[in-house]
Amino acid sequence: MQISFRPLMIGDLPKLRAWFEDSELSRRLSFPTDEWFAYVTNGEPARCWVAMQGDQLIAEVQVDRDGAERGYLDLAVCPDLRGRGFGAAVLSAFLSGPGQAYPILEGRIEPDNAASVACCRHCGFALLPEPDADGFNRAVYKMPRHAFGEF
């Protein structure tokens, strides 16, 4: 499966917003508002990419930077593709592509989200034994030292 990434564009919003008709996705992530779009496209505090397979938008990946070392990761896969390995494929491709700009990536996963836990495990994230203060499981990926760069 060949996956490419490009920055999120305004024209992607209608497709992303349609994904939120899916109750599972809308329960897990916030709806992509105009304010969110401005936040993830206006510089370094946060960035957002869309994952493409050919000309099909299959996922979006957001990273909120916390200092020079850590980024907090959100991943949304097109609901029609759920359960077919796309999450792990996108996350793996992200780690070997744009994700290399972040020495440490962390995901916060709701305790009942077994698919996200499995996806993170598959891609080499360490699951911390204790939940965070909000009750979320923490999955942490430390980038190999040679990989750091800007994308």
List the keywords.
alpha+beta; 7 strands
Q: Would you give an account of this structure?
A:
The protein has 151 residues and is an alpha+beta fold. Helices cover 26% and strands 30% of the residues. It contains five helices and seven strands, in the order βαααβββαβαββ. Strands 1-2-3-4-5-7-6 form a seven-stranded mixed β-sheet, with helices on both faces. α4 links the parallel β4 (70-77) and β5.
The helix count comes to: 5
- How would you describe the shape? globular
- By DSSP, the count of extended strands is 7
- Helix- and strand-based class? alpha+beta
Widest sheet: strand ordering: 1-2-3-4-5-7-6
Mean pLDDT: 92
Low-confidence stretches: none
Strand/helix succession: EHHHEEEHEHEE
Topology:
Layout: E1 4-7, H1 13-19, H2 23-28, H3 34-41, E2 46-53, E3 56-66, E4 70-77, H4 86-95, E5 104-109, H5 114-122, E6 126-127, E7 137-142
Parallel strand pairs: 4-5
Antiparallel strand pairs: 1-2, 2-3, 3-4, 5-7, 6-7
How would you briefly describe this protein structure?
The chain is α+β, with helices and mostly antiparallel strands. It has helices at residues 13-19, 23-28, 34-41, 86-95, 114-122, and strands spanning 4-7, 46-53, 56-66, 70-77, 104-109, 126-127, 137-142.
